[in-house]
Amino acid sequence: MRTPPDPFAHKYAEARVKFLAAAHGTQLESHPEPLRGLELETLAMDVARIGADDADALLIVSSGCHGVEGYCGSGAQVAMLHDDALRDKARLAGVALLFVHALNPWGFSFGRRVTHEGVDLNRNFIDFRRPPPGNPGYDQLAAALLPEDWPPTLNDERQIMAWGGSHGMPALQAAISGGQYRHPDGLFYGGLSPTWSQQTLRMVLRQHASRCRLLGWIDLHSGLGESGVGERIFAARDEDGAKHRAKAWWGNRITFTDDGSSTSSDLHGNLWHAAYDECPQAAYAGITLEFGTQPAEAVLRALRHDHWLARRRQPNDEHAEFARAAMRQAFFTDTPDWKQAVIAQSRAAAAQAIDGMAAWR
Ligand SMILES: [Zn+2]
Fold it and tell me: Which domains, ranges and CATH numbers included, belong to the chain?
């Protein structure tokens, strides 16, 4: 096995170079984003395919849905691309692999969770022909979460805790993180139209995933749950035997947002909805592979500061560098143990999916 010294990167541009180098010799394409990055570098959603064009089983491994979380997911992808044993396993099983690097390259480069439109990509896949879902809890908490001045006052924090006290902590988490469509500069905002990332991802799915009979998807995330533990969160609709299929492909440790077994709330507008629109011919199942980093309060604090700064629109002020470093730390733990855990568990999830999909035929 060719193991690179460190598949993880310190900047988006470095992550992209490592991905493109690791993907050398695969079927590779790049979809440039119209905007430039923090250091004026080119931004792109890069796609590497391994396996036959007409493979009847396709496993997608994607990173950077939430920009800054790409530090985690990109490293896992690069390690997998260098993993000859894993690639051989997929080849022998007849499962094609599709690595989608940096679903949200702008957020990755700027160290933010949102897209250049200010949108949480994993809340953006709703049906925009209908009124967006309401979130009265967020409406009530918006001013305390992102107050006029930073840092938030004791009174702001008390308001948030009091809301949790009367509605329960799961309801508080759902109100904050479940997705909202009324506060464009707020947290977990789903937007009012499809983002560039959504449109580009749909194009990639149409091109690569509209012929397979079986479609598996591992979407790599970070920032929620126990440090270094990759939670396998069911990422599909509860219909057409998808839960059964997901358990067959990824095992019984899979968690669900609709029964309280997951650390994540039930969300609006997940990106995997696109699999149903663009790949209706395929039996689909997917997981969000979510790696814990820091305690939830610390992650939320970094996110609030990041959004507060973005709303001020003064990118060069003295807070910016500090906030970017805090965001990186909130979504990526730069220790050998944590990075090794990410590599090992991502590989295990991919290997298990390859076996599971091969046995399903
Ligand atoms: Zn995420």
Answer: 12-126+195-296+329-360 (3.40.630.10)
Instruction: Round to whole Å and give the CA distance between 69 and 188.
Output: 14
Least confident of 82-86, 160-164, 320-324: 320-324
- Rounded to the nearest angstrom, the distance between the alpha carbon of 68 and the centre of ligand 1 is 9
Q: Residue 102: left (phi > 0), alpha (psi -120 to 50), or beta? A: left
Q: Which residues have a Cβ under 8 Å from the Cβ of 68 and sit 6 or more positions away? A: 107, 108, 111, 112, 113, 327, 328, 330, 331, 332
- The whole-chain average pLDDT of the chain stands at 96
Residues 6 or more apart whose Cβ sits within 8 Å of residue 118: 184, 185, 189, 191, 310
Helix H or strand E segment including 31: strand 27-32
Neighbours of 292 (CB within 10 A): 21
Whole-number Å distance, alpha carbon 63 to ligand 1 midpoint, is 9
pLDDT digits (tens, 9 = 90+) for 160-211: 999 999 999 999 999 999 999 999 999 999 999 999 999 999 999 999 999 9
Percent of the chain with pLDDT over 70: 98
H helix or E strand, kind and range, residue 222: strand 214-227
The alpha carbon of 120 and the centre of ligand 1 are apart by a number of angstroms equal to 9
How far is ligand 1, taken at its centre, from the CA of residue 221, in Å? 4
Give residue 69 CA to ligand 1 midpoint distance, Å.
6
Dihedral (C-alpha) 148, 154, 159, 160: value to the nearest 10 degrees?
Answer: 90
Ligand 1 centre to CA of 93 (Å) is 30
